[in-house]
Amino acid sequence: MPMTKSSNVQIEPAKESLLEVKQLKKFFPVKKNFLHLNKEKTFVQAVNDVSFTLYKGETYGLVGESGCGKSTTGRTILKLTDPTEGQAIYNGSNIFKLSEQELRKVRQDIQMVFQDPYSSLNPRKRIGKTLEEPLVIHNIGNAHERTEIVMEILHTVGLQLEHYYRYPHEFSGGQRQRIGLARALILNPKILIMDEPVSALDVSIQSQILNLLKKLQSELDLSFLFISHDMGVVRHISDRIGVMYLGRLVEEAPTDELFSAPLHPYTQALLSAVPVPKLGTKRERVILKGDLPSPMNPPSGCVFHTRCPFVMERCKSEVPQKKHKTMEHHVACHLYDE
Question: Which residue ranges form the domains of the chain, and what is each CATH number?
Answer without folding.
Answer: 17-29+42-336 (3.40.50.300)
